[in-house]
Amino acid sequence: MSPRGRGVRGRQLASAGDPEHSATTTVPGRMMRPRLYEQIVEELLTHIRREKLHAGDKLPPERDLAQALGVSRASLAQALVALEVVGVLQVRHGEGAVILEAAPPHGALLAAVRQHQDTLPDIIDARSALEAKLASLAAQRHVPEDMQAIDDALALMERQVNSGERALEGDRAFHEAVTRAGHSRILARLMGEISSLILETRIESLSQHGRPAESLEQHRLVAEAIRSRDAMGAAIAMIRHIDTVSDVAFLRPYEEEQDIASEAGVG
Q1: Could you report how far apart the first and last alpha carbons of the chain are, in Å?
Q2: 11 in helix, strand or coil?
């Protein structure tokens, strides 16, 4: 099933009581099971409440948490992303996971995460369309100051990648610089409207091993196409980039997540 087909669907079965008739009856479909990262989120929230952690306090190191919960660090990282997206904590370079606010009421966070998960495909579609057009316009309309801002963002991201950070600030600066270089007030306003909605894909994508460096290289390809005033090339490079960074675990089917967990020795 694709990420978009998440609903529980009934199945149509022929009536067993009267084989001569073609009447059908609907039976319940497969039950929705809590995904692994959702279970980990609940465990982390329980830990925060039990230990009475407040803003500024830190969770144990990821390695210790993963061992204590009996899960892979990849699955733990996904749960931390969910908590970061909704503002409960922030994963800081060199510090680990730092609490930002008290844990929300039981069930409230998972409801929010699932709502975001359901709308993400449409958000990604909108982002791809908007940013491809903006990259194309940037190639046609940029002035020296725009190109300088793009280069500065690339330099910032490179420094963050080289220091082992997720490079969130550099990534955001690059996309904002390309948006400004497009010189379209309406498209820029639309990008501003969805910027908070794409935060979770940005956080999770750049939390994946090797993704910040890969994203930086793709940014460079977009930048060079813009510099060369290659509108088509800039749009294509941006679409390829959005496709890459939109490959996030929130959108993977439950079965694929379980396969990954099994391969990591988690069951």
Answers
A1: 22
A2: strand
| CA torsion through residues 4, 190, 161, 68, sign | negative
> How many whole angstroms separate alpha carbon 168 and alpha carbon 58?
20
**3-state SS class at 100:** coil
Torsional sign, CA 184, 190, 196, 199: negative
The residues facing 89 across adjacent strands are 99
Angstrom CA distances, 76 to 48, 138, 148, stand at 15, 39, 38
The per-residue b/e assignment along 183-203, b for 16 or more CB within 10 angstroms, e otherwise, is: bbeebbebbeeeeebbebbbb
State the Cα–Cα distance between residues 194 and 220, nearest whole angstrom.
24
CB contact at 8 A, 102 and 54: yes
190, HSE (Cβ side, Cα atoms, 13 Å): 14
Closest CA to 174 of 247, 226, 244: 226
The model's pLDDT over 206-244, given as tens digits with 9 standing for 90+, comes to: 877 889 999 999 999 999 999 999 999 999 999 999 999
Whole-number Cα distances in Å, 261 to 24, 60, 245, 246: 38, 22, 21, 20
Predicted confidence (pLDDT) at residue 162 exceeds the cutoff of 90: yes
The Cα 152–Cα 162 span in angstroms is 15
